[in-house]
Amino acid sequence: MRLPGTVAAILAGLLLMGGGTLRADRLMPQASAQETGPTVFAAASLKDALDEVNEAWGSEAGKRARISYAATSALAKQIAEGAPADIFLSADRDWMDFVQETGRIEPGSRADLLANRIVLIAPESSDTTADIEQGFPLAKMLGEARLAMANVAAVPAGKYGKAALQSLGVWESVEGRVAQAQNVRAALALVARGEAPLGIVYSTDARAESRVRIVGTFPDGSHPPIIYPVAQLADATGSSATEFYEFLRGKRAASIFRDHGFEVLPHE
To answer: What is the C-alpha to C-alpha distance for residues 91 and 217, in angstroms, rounded to an integer?
Structure first.
């Protein structure tokens, strides 16, 4: 078969450049030998802090983790159904228990990484005040409006919020007036946009959003401890999963998490 003149000329030139041998690496770029970063499933409330941790790790490792953020409940169910991931960062212990029961956690890798608090927030322009205590007048504060919360049946922030309101004796007064969002960041956005006058989110979420302010912090004893466990998954591939996991538990990551308002839990 005769080649068009232009193509024949190009091939001839390549043959000369290669010393008479047509080399594939002169026709196409070489594939990078560098390993890609791990796939991480992480609670939505970790986004700002974990993005910064990922950048810090990337500056050392020369690669970035691929991080998927969503409600912990949704991520845990995806992992249980076989979604490919290397590391799971949960916003509560219950959903990490759920994943562990499926056998998808690498034995010995589970650890409690961070702690948080939940707060009542209002739009930045609001002058609402409250002492969050037994029987505080949340329904009166809402008026005819709705309270923004993450899904109270499944999403950790919503579950913590409901538990706190039940403990303080005010859940029944607002139960029918809760605007439930798919994750805590969506609940935060409802208040930030002025679509809800009050919301319950993590203190770290409120800190990350300039359009809201904290009205009050829920007492620690009003809800279960807010713990973020981390674990490698049993079918993690490549050394980068272990490298990133260890970085998450190291001093540089700890400093970043603290800067974003998280409490870093001690580990062995």
So the answer is: 18
Mean confidence (pLDDT) of the chain: 89
Write the burial class of residue 185 (CB in 10 Å: 0-12 exposed, 13-18 middle, 19+ buried). Answer: buried
- Model confidence at 5: pLDDT above 60: no
What mean pLDDT do residues 197-208 have? 97
Report how far residue 96's alpha carbon sits from residue 73's, in angstroms, rounded to the nearest whole number: 9
Q: What is the distance between the alpha carbons of residues 229 and 94, in angstroms, rounded to a whole number?
A: 10
Burial of 251 (0-12, 13-18, 19+ CB in 10 A): exposed
Per-residue pLDDT tens over the stretch 109-122: 999 999 999 999 99
Average pLDDT estimate for 141-154: 97
Q: Number of helices and strands (H, E) in the chain?
A: 11, 11
Over residues 32-73, the pLDDT tens digits come to 334 689 999 999 999 999 999 999 999 999 999 999 999 999
Q: What angle do CA 146, 226, 170 make, to 5 degrees?
A: 35
CATH of domain 39-115+226-264: 3.40.190.10
Domain boundaries defined on the chain: 39-115+226-264, 118-217
Reduced to 3 states, what is the DSSP secondary structure of residue 62? Answer: coil
Which CATH entry fits the domain spanning 118-217: 3.40.50.300, 3.40.50.620, 3.10.520.10, 3.40.190.10?
Answer: 3.40.190.10
Neighbours of 228 (CB within 10 A): 26
Q: In 3D, which of 109, 224, 212, 205 has the Cα closest to residue 161?
A: 224
- Hey, do 39-115+226-264 and 118-217 end up sharing a CATH topology, with the first three levels equal? yes
